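Record 1 of the preview.
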Amino acid sequence: MGNESRNYWQRLTRERATRRRFLGGTAAGAAGLTGFALVGCGDDEGDQERGSGDGQESQATQPATGPRSGGSLRRQTNYGGYLNLDPHVENGGKGREYGTFYQGLVRYDPPTYDIVPLLAESWEQPSDVELIFHLQPGVKWHDRPPANGRELTADDVVFSFERMRTDSPEFFAKDFFPTVERLEAPDQATISVTLNEPDADILSRFAGDGIVILAPEVVEQAGEFATAETAVGTGAFLVESRQSEVGMRLVRNPDYWRADSPYLDAIDLHFFSNNPADERGWAAFLAGELDMAAAPGTEAQGYIAEQGSGYEPLWFEDTAGFFLVPNVRVEPFNDPRVTKALRLLVDHEEFKTAWAEVWFGRGSHASYFPSSLRSWDFEEDEYATFLEWKQSKDEAVQEAVALLGAAGFTGDSPLQAEILCTAGSYGQGGAELLNAQWARLGQGVVASAIRAVDSATYQDVRSSSEFQYGFISNGAAFNGPGFWLDEVYRSDTRKNYWGYSDPELDRMISGQRTLYDSEERQSTIKDILRHMIDNHPGVMVTARGILNVRQPQLRDVAAEWHMFGPQYDEVWLDRS
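->
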């Protein structure tokens, strides 16, 4: 194996006061969290959002002693449906919560996204197309039937990956491993992976949410994984109970294979939407009924100011994105002049300040990557050199109106555009801002209207591509740049809701995957972004950051929005 790929893997593994009085008062109605007394409703548009933070210990006060065992953590969960506990089928954020009781070979380490061992004790790459995992010794399944605490084997790993890669459409990970030709178990402690081409993202693929191991006998007996008892994994916690639209209780696995972990006795997950318009979870946090929450964007800066000069904010850097996208299967949005013009009539600076900062707390310029991939993206000042992001918008507006005129649209015969979005909250807020920008900047040549629908309808309409233009969310299963390019932007991906096909882009995406030299890959990915800015019909409006807040006794927790289950092996409560 060459030095480039070896070095690559080494690097990879290493008004507010009044508002607050109101929330404090309403928190009395949020009392009684223990025992699932609180019920909420809502949705975060069903996308996979994982994130990085600015640091793990962000309170001004630090623990006087090391980690202590005991205590129950009270946390908001954003998913109330829990249709089932099958990690290979039911994902979309829940894959992260399921990481408390199911485990994969490796995982990422927030906030750095370094890949670290989990069920695999170590790994090696003999060549650019070979990867060998060595299992941790002594890993046991939960002491529940039918696994009954037996030892994990390499055959379990092979079974799980074959199950994940089945052609049945409900298995969401079937497209995650396009370069894996074979996965075999030469012995019960070793897994051998053979690739059909070099893949710089291969280790990250195994760290994706929901890429976890199940025992064959558990799958056979569990059926639809409908009850708590069917969730048999190798993780630090057991599912004790769950109730749809209410929450889930997790308890410490007394036979966990990692010595002295976890520290927590239990985790009580209480369902509240992470929709910023639904502030019941925030009210519960202010009342001391939750140990961790995401601050609404309207509260973020005020909360930071109230904490004093020693407070270091804990920001979740978003791993999903919100896009302005046409359905290029529908006329006239199959005309590149039209789609280019509509992008030029977007004021990204206003989306950053009037949408991202208002709804979430922080915004930054982006085009096709979320804020958690900023190291692979252009800097803010670099975006200012692209016409679409320039301030003022005069030059962009002039070109946009000329493009629309060339496509046959004028003030007397304007372009009609219907914008799909979720009703209420930030989805509709973003669509309304876009609608206002097109009206203000479009000089009467664009006549748009909003199609706001409930979350379930939005999911169906987005998946079936039955829309003209959309303010829609999208994301990848893991935070690597290759994942985003493969899952969101390739012509043949299932998340290509807009129907765009670009053979040159597909070729560039495939090419960057084979590059192990970091500098060469970074340069190539910047070329891909430039190509997309010049040619892609859609664009991300802005990137966002969400402020995490926690009670002082909660220790060693990294920023997240959806719960990142694996980190709770190390989280502890300082009751001193």
